[in-house]
Amino acid sequence: SNKFLHFSVSPADVSNFHIISIKYCFVFLSRAKSSKLEFLKGFQPQAEGQQLRILLHGPPGAGKSSFINSVNSVLQGKVIRIAPVNNAAQASFTKKNTSYRIKKPNEESFYPFVLNDTMSLKTKSSRRVRRVHVKDMKKAMKGHIKDGYTFNPECSLSKSDGYYNTSPNADDKAHILVCVIDATSELRNDVIETIQDIRDDATDLGETTHSSFP
Fold it and tell me: What is the value of pTM for the model shown?
């Protein structure tokens, strides 16, 4: 089934915190207009040396890892899988907080952004588990979760844990929050509420937000 990416980021937007909803998830970025692709390839943040963090979340099997692989493949000019993928019939494949950097073709440097994959919310989760998920996503947005942390559905990351980043810098914090949703599957009400809670927490951080959540 065909799915597509629906979002826009302009140069003036990069200093703000954005919430972007992907309504039809598997990304055919190769169909993007060449001007937008060239902008992405040549993009530089306003602050020299800044690294934009794109934080992904959504239900299991929605296509977060596929999104990462699609972006990487388009920018590399060939199909390359860097993130393990799962199918919608299984639980979340991603268990750890994982950052992916994309190397520029024929260069030793990387693009100035990081794609940050997270564990999906379990389907038919209890209210307590959903609260834990929302708390961890807020900590990830604020840069408090280090790379390699294994998410625990039963308990949110504590400040005493070695994977808790007590002093996150600008590169650790999320600049773009992407909600990946499979438009071919009907979302349960509890999943919708959890996504809305995460969006509300992002708004409460006091930053400018943009949302195309239906």
Answer: 0.77
